[in-house]
TrEMBL record, chain A:
Keywords: Membrane, Transmembrane, Transmembrane helix
Protein's UniProt keywords contain Membrane: yes
Organism of provenance: Halobacillus karajensis
Protein name: Integral membrane protein
Top-level division of the source organism's lineage: Bacteria
Transmembrane regions listed in the UniProt entry: 12-30, 42-64
TrEMBL record, chain B:
GO MF annotation list: symporter activity
GO cellular component: plasma membrane
Protein name in the entry: Symporter YodF
Location(s), subcellular: Cell membrane
Membrane topology label: Multi-pass membrane protein
Lineage summary: Bacteria, Bacillati, Bacillota, Bacilli, Bacillales
């Protein structure tokens, strides 16, 4: 069975998640005290930003892998054909 | 960059890097002798780059020697507020998701070689394509100029002035041109891989050395708590605005660099492209993150530097680390060689894309479409060479006035974004509106930059981009697009 073609830009839900992550990687929501608490020399707000950035990278990897399928299937078929010859 | 290394080890490492690059060029040439008859083979490596090589060649377009030399001083001055340099590199990959999937498909379908060719295909307008091509050439030219200056400064700094600035530039430019000519995109991508690995290794050694000899983040944080607590604090209002505009600006800006776009076409297949991007999404932690920590450690290691002095921070730290142990000494020599190699690798990508636009679009489409591919290639290479010659002269004899026209790059390159991205999805987008938008955006961004005028603290390029986008959208809605034209656009986009 053919998998449906997928293009990230057409999937609104993904961009809502990207929007939320974008909000989390911008330091607008921290109380001042987050600059005073240090963990291994890193202020707490910066740790939260790093964590949110990791989430963004992880989500990007997920989207790249599962929500971008335009040519892959055809290319794999072509590759198989070539291999069979 | 003043470095305490005696000249000879610096000279040795630079010669070694130069010879390896040449070796890569010659090997590529011997293995792929047929590439000089085909634009596809020469400029896109036959559309066959695998995950690793594609990844490193994308890496080279985003991270240059500047990331290593220029970012730690910013972290030194701004403190944790400069942590933004990590997420803004991740944003570039998010920006790619806006257009790379479709552009890859269309690139394959229409055998696109350059970003300018997409404009030709989509808008079928000589005016739009030529304007886009000129903007890219101009922006790329200035980008190249910046890299050439950096090569010269880096070489003379690394060798303690033993090799003068001019000799450094000429040496690396000759090597770069030779391996570029011999192997095209393949050479460029393979050398990018070598250069990327050298840079990563060096940066990690500098981080380890800094932690061992200066103390890690906790030591630095103690210092900041006592003397400059604002460097630890949560960014204030303007700080947050600056942070956010950097995220958006760098994300979109770096993704639409012409040499970055062109690499999409060079991928072997969709899966390869996706995997390379996926790795790129994690790299900011290992690159920008590491150089950020180095800058923060510098706050404690070399306190109280003025802005000018802090620009030398990486050199000071590397010299101090190098003097501690012979292993670190050689690691630091390798690092600085790697920094210069990284600048060369950015320069070669830019030069290759520059030549491809001449070969494929200006000469190959409008001046002499009947020419053989061999001839088109030759013209592109020669014009590229002439451009490099002119840029070297500009670098040596900087003009006293109007120097600003050589600074414009990002402001111009970003102006192709609306036509490029909207054109992929919106059938109604009209070529006249795209032309008008691109031109207005360019003029506004350039005039603001040349006369050093800024508005509301938002970058000039972004003002140009906003107006450009407005003209594109409103213009397309106002100008009536004939049913035929809309249908034709739909057919080209074809999804």
């Amino acid at each position: 069975m053919d998998k449906p073609k997928r293009e990230p830009i057409k999937n609104g839900k993904l961009w809502i998640v990207f929007g939320v992550l974008l909000a989390f990687i911008t330091p607008w929501y921290f109380p001042t005290s987050f600059g005073e608490i240090l963990i291994y020399g890193i202020p707490l707000w910066a740790l939260v930003i790093i964590f949110a950035s990791l989430l963004l990278s992880a989500f990007l990897s997920y989207v790249l892998k599962y929500h971008w399928m335009l040519e892959e299937e055809e290319e794999e078929k072509e590759a198989e054909k070539k291999g069979a010859r | 960059m003043e470095l305490a290394f005696s000249g000879w080890s610096g000279i040795l490492i630079l010669l070694m890097y130069g010879l390896i690059m040449l070796g890569v060029g010659i090997t590529t040439y011997l293995r792929n002798r047929n590439i000089h008859q085909s634009l596809d083979e020469y400029y896109l490596g036959g559309r066959g780059l695998g995950v690793m090589v594609l990844f490193f060649t994308f890496f080279a377009t985003q991270y240059s020697g500047n990331t290593v030399i220029g970012y730690p001083p910013s972290a030194y001055r701004m403190g944790f507020e400069y942590l933004v340099s990590v997420p803004f590199f991740i944003m570039i990959i998010m920006a790619y998701l806006l257009f790379a999937p479709r552009l890859y498909s269309l690139g394959k379908k229409y055998k696109l070689v350059t970003p300018a060719q997409w404009f030709e295909k989509r808008f079928k307008s000589k005016a739009v394509t030529i304007l886009a091509a000129l903007l890219m050439l101009y922006g790329l030219g200035n980008y190249l100029l910046e890299q050439l200056v950096a090569i010269g400064q880096g070489v003379s700094g690394l060798t303690g002035g033993t090799i003068p600035y001019q000799v450094g530039v000429i040496f690396f430019v000759i090597i770069m041109v030779i391996y570029g000519w011999l192997g095209g995109m393949r050479s460029v991508a393979y050398t990018d891989t070598m250069q990327g690995i050298a840079l990563l290794f060096g940066v990690f050694m500098l981080l380890i050395g800094s932690i061992v000899y200066f103390g890690g983040l906790p030591t630095s944080a103690d210092y900041m708590q006592a003397y400059s607590p604002e460097k630890l604090g949560v960014p204030d209002g303007p700080g947050v605005v600056n942070w956010f505009s950097l995220l958006v600006l760098i994300g979109i800006g770096a993704a639409v660099y012409p040499h970055a776009i062109q690499r999409i076409f060079a991928a072997k297949n969709e899966r390869t492209l996706k995997r390379s991007f996926s790795r790129m999404a994690w790299m900011p932690f290992l690159t920008a993150g590491v150089v950020f920590i180095i800058g923060i450690i510098g706050i404690n290691a070399f306190p109280g530097l003025s802005t000018g002095e802090s620009e030398q921070l990486v050199g000071m730290m590397a010299s101090a680390v190098a003097s501690q142990h012979v292993v670190f000494y050689w690691a630091m020599v390798l690092l600085f060689g790697g920094v210069i190699a990284a600048i060369v690798s950015t320069a070669d990508s830019v030069l290759l894309t520059f030549s491809s636009i001449i070969s494929n679009d200006l000469y190959g489409t409008y001046i002499n479409p009947e020419a053989s591919q061999h001839k088109k290639l030759l013209v592109g290479k020669l014009v590229g060479l002439v451009a490099v010659g002119i840029l070297i002269l500009v670098a040596w004899f900087p003009p006293g006035t109007l120097y600003q026209i050589f600074v414009l790059k990002f402001e111009l390159l970003i102006q192709i974004a609306p036509g490029l991205i909207l054109g992929l999805y919106w059938n109604r987008l009209h070529s006249k509106a795209v032309f008008a938008g691109m031109l207005t955006g360019t003029i506004i961004a350039s005039v603001m930059t040349i006369f050093d005028y800024s508005l509301l603290g938002v970058a000039n390029g972004l003002w140009g981009l906003l107006i450009n986008l407005g003209v594109c959208v409103i213009g397309s809605l106002v100008v009536s697009v004939s049913v035929g034209e809309e249908k034709e656009a739909k057919q080209v986009i074809g999804m």
